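Colleagues,

For the teaching module next term, I've prepared a clean inverse folding example: a structure given as tokens, and then the sequence designed for it. I'd like students to try predicting residues themselves before seeing the answer, so please don't circulate the second half yet.
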């Protein structure tokens, strides 16, 4: 039985990996000089990212892992996709987000594989079911860990590197001496 403290971590890892996949895919798709094969990899990365976010949301709402064989297979396929992206275009697919997304994907895949290996879970009594309720401490620790890994990884993607600096944004409202908003 998974500890209530760590039960949410695979879902949080999937959410972090999903965000990175979407950022990597967006960078591959939007490049003006992207070859067709990189565009295909980018689309697949976006799809894997969206699927990972959907699975993460579903996993956080339930107490059991759904479709563990599919999740384990998808984790392996997404690792292959990361490797293909890095191999085919190392300039656009930075090693930092690839590594972080890969590590988070391994967490999800290992959890799914461990779930598949379990032959039979014992029936839980109501007291044990209550013990599986998500611990606020576990969620907080997981969120902090994923955020600490994903934030710099997103910044290292092409989308993150091309994003304007926060100080470079134009002001939306320019209040003149007359007190009226201008352009």
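(Answer key — instructors only)
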């Amino acid at each position: 039985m998974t500890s209530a403290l760590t039960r949410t971590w695979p879902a949080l890892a999937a959410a972090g990996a999903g965000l990175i996949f979407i950022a990597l895919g967006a960078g591959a798709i939007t490049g003006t000089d992207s070859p067709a094969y990189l565009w295909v990899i980018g689309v697949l990365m976006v799809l894997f990212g969206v699927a990972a976010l959907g699975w993460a949301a579903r996993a956080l709402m339930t107490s059991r892992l759904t479709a563990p064989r599919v999740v384990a297979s998808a984790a392996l396929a997404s690792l292959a996709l990361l490797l293909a992206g890095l191999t085919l275009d190392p300039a656009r697919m930075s090693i930092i987000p690839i590594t972080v997304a890969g590590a988070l994907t391994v967490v999800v895949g290992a959890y799914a594989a461990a779930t598949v290996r379990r032959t039979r879970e014992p029936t839980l009594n109501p007291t044990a079911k209550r013990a599986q309720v998500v611990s606020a401490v576990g969620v907080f620790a997981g969120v902090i860990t994923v955020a600490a890994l994903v934030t710099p990884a997103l910044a290292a993607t092409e989308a993150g590197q091309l994003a304007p600096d926060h100080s470079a944004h134009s002001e939306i409202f320019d209040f003149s001496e007359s007190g009226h908003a201008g352009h």
